[in-house]
Amino acid sequence: MSNDATSGGSEKPAAQQSNSQAEHTEHAGQVLLPDLELNIERLQRFLGGGSDIVCRTLTHRSFDNEQYAILYMDGLVDGAAIHTMLLGLLEDANRTNELQDDGSLYNHLMDRSIAVGKIRPVTSIDEAGYAMLEGSTVIVVGHSLRAIAVDTAGGESRSVEEPSSQTVVRGPKEGFTENLRTNTALVRRIIKSPNLRMDYKVVGQETRTNIAVVYLQGIAQDDVVQEVHRRIDAIEIDGILESGYIEEFIQDKAFTPFPLIQNTERPDAACAGILEGQVVIMVSGTPFVLLTPVTFVRFFQSSEDYYQRYDIATFLRLIRVASFFISMLLPSMYIAITTFHQEMLPTSLLVSLAAQREGVPFPALVEAFLMEITFEILREAGVRMPRIIGPAISIVGALVLGQAAVQAGLVSAAMVIVVSFTAIASFVIPAVNMGIAARLIRFVLMILGGTFGLFGIMSGLMVLLAHLCGLRSFGKPYLMPISPFVPGNLKDVLIRVPWWAMRNRPKNMASKSNLKREGSGQRPDPDREGA
Question: Which residue among 6, 257, 378, 498 has the highest number of C-beta atoms inside a 10 angstrom radius?
Fold first, then answer.
């Protein structure tokens, strides 16, 4: 009996779900009928009949008291826009002394009464339902085969704030939000060009997520724009919840630790990429936008590099590149040298390291893995813990565990220093996804260094370099302008030359017909003031 009861209880939700899907399919694609009550009932059933569906029926006296209904989803609309529209409709309906000659109430509402900028006709139940789910208000007219979708999207949303993942000392403090329209407006405020193009798409069978493809016509390469559209149009999935979904679907190669698409939550960084020929992909529901195509060196560039003096920016950029290699190589180099190549160390340093490791029961490889895994756990715990106590957990945990491990004789003090400096170096990289790639590669190189010494590390780096040379980002070489070598693009790689010296856009990004970025003769002249 218990089995029967259990099976019966489990079948009921499935039956209800199948009935709901059947009702949804039944009304999907059906045209509107000249019956107001029936249209309202079918539309409510299409949307599941939730309590957040607001429906109000009104009567227009100038058209023989013909009725029409206003329907919208509570929480998805702008209350002020709804209030303004209702007042306008009620005021229009009370003008009984003026006989309307528009032929029908639908034409009158469409052409005269609705004081909202964006309206469009709808002819089917599913079209009206999806419009309501996007925040529109649907006006269903009594004897008409068409309804009116009024753009009243609004509701609660996060305001524009300073980006939390890409902070700068000097530069704009605005960041993208989860609202797609707000994000496109932030870009429009910076790039006031009629050549700025925003192509909108809908991806996801259930979520119907809005996506905007943003680029500058005449600067972005046409083949790249077409390829972006083709790859996005080929996506078939039930839901898109974040831009990371899109990134995994459209990147050139799946099995690589290196990011092939750049992401940012800074409008100035996105606009800088657009001005150099990149295509920006905005996804509703996330503040992180995607930029493509991208090269390896771009992940070491920060927006602040272009707001500081060029000499300071060059110094900071070299530090970031050095930190990347330190984060990737330092533990493996320490393991290889202390295990296989002790002759490379000065005698005094070798004696000091040998004294520290005298009571350590593990080889250097196991010791390094133990500390690296511990620090990765502490890092992840600091991210997942509440913001108030997260940093305290990370710092206190690292200090206490590191000191206790040394005193207990499990690890040497030198290994704690190496692992700590490696962790700090990984935070210097501006792009978080490139820092994660260095962390993953670090463990592989540690195994190679602990097994084969420096020969293993060099072999791993050669394989890594060959892998990088074979990567493409929307058909563009990943290591460009280093490989293939493009001398004209080296002004903004490891060093940043002054702005007056960067006359052209990157050749691998921008259209060949529009490479010029600035005029000539803008170099500061020391004799200009005296003249």
Answer: 378
Q: How many domains does the chain have?
A: 3
CA distance 392 to 402: 15
Over 60: is that where the pLDDT of 150 sits? yes
Torsion of CA 471, 476, 482, 484, to 10 degrees: 100
Could you give the C-alpha distances from 103 to 58, 142, 320, in angstroms and in order? 19, 14, 70
Angle at 411 between CA 407 and CA 414, to 5 degrees: 100
Residue 65: band (very low, low, confident or very high) from pLDDT cuts 50, 70, 90 = confident
DSSP letters spanning 395-452:
HHHHHHHHHHHHHHTSS-HHHHHHHHHHHHHHTTSS-HHHHHHHHHHHHHHHHHHHHH
Same domain, 23 and 101: yes
Interior angle at CA 369, CA 363 and CA 375, nearest 5: 135
Helix (H) or strand (E) holding 263: strand 262-264
Residue pair 383/432 in contact (Cβ under 8 Å)? The answer is no
Residues 6+ apart with CB under 8 A from 483: 469, 477
Same domain, 19 and 128: yes
- Asked, for residue 4, whether it belongs to a domain, the answer is no
Domain endpoint, select from 232, 262, 294: 294
Residues 468 and 328 in one domain: yes
Lookup: tokens for 366: 């196991």
Report which of 149, 285, 128 is spatially closest to residue 210, judged by C-alpha positions: 285
Q: Taking Cα atoms as reference points, which of 266, 261, 247, 244 lies closest to residue 166?
A: 266
Q: Are 275 and 216 in contact (CB under 8 A)?
A: yes
CA distances to 227, 389, 501 from 233, rounded to whole Å, are 10, 44, 40
d(CA 291, CA 44): 40
Q: Are 321 and 442 contained in the same domain?
A: yes
Q: Where are the alpha helices (DSSP H) in 267-389?
A: 267-275, 310-340, 347-356, 364-384
When mean pLDDT is compared over 45-49, 129-133, 227-231, the highest value belongs to 227-231
Q: Maximum CA pair distance of the chain?
A: 106
Instruction: Express each pLDDT in 482-531 by its tens digit.
Output: 888 888 788 888 889 998 888 888 887 888 878 888 777 778 776 665 44
Establish if 519 belongs to a structural domain: no
Q: Is 216 helix (H, G, I), strand (E, B) or coil?
A: strand
Among 294, 318, 353, where does a domain finish?
294
d(CA 417, CA 396): 16
9 inside domain: no
Q: Are 224 and 252 in contact (CB under 8 A)?
A: no
Same domain, 28 and 130: yes
Spatial strand order in the sheet of 66-73: 53-60, 66-73, 136-141, 147-151, 119-122
Say if 276 falls within a structural domain.
yes
pLDDT digits (tens, 9 = 90+) for 236-249: 999 999 999 999 99
